[in-house]
Amino acid sequence: MNKALTVTAVVATVFAGYAVYFDYQRRNSREFRKSLKKKAVKQQKIKEKVEKETKELKLETVKKALLEDLRANPIPTDLNEREAFFMEQVATGEQKAKDNATDAAICFYKALAVYPNPTDILGVYQKTVPEEVYELVVMMIAVYPPASVSSILSRGGAAPGETKPTAEDLD
After folding, report:
1. Which of 22, 25, 31, 101 is least enclosed by beta carbons within 10 angstroms?
2. What is the pLDDT of residues 69-127, one digit of tens each?
3. Could you tell me where this protein is found in the cell (predicted)?
4. Alpha-carbon distance 118 to 135, whole Å?
């Protein structure tokens, strides 16, 4: 018992001594502060690089999965088929959301592709679908926008007869 207490006291003293030394160096040594800042910047750059690579890999994976699924199961064009297809895809997406986010996102993407007003359904998705699945759906829209979304994006410019504001107008 006495030996364990002695070891604990020595370890605590060494730790406290190191903390005091570190704090003294941090406060009084420019070189030490500079080295700490360099290490922090280096770690931040490494972190950003890893995040960027991870995001690019995720985007490629999502793109590949979406295009393979669209080739295997194309989106119907008939109005009656589209309504049934929408309901089927939403139900399937809700079931798959618990197990496989990518498959669920593909289902929700396909439902969005046949929905007449995609901005409304995106709002519903944002409120009801898990965040990871919603993020994948948005990635899929960015990678391969459905026709209903493309038409909205193309209308984003100036209407015929309107002129876009110039830099002088904005001043």
Report:
1. 31
2. 888 888 888 888 888 898 999 999 999 888 888 899 999 999 998 888 888 888 898 89
3. Mitochondrion outer membrane
4. 16
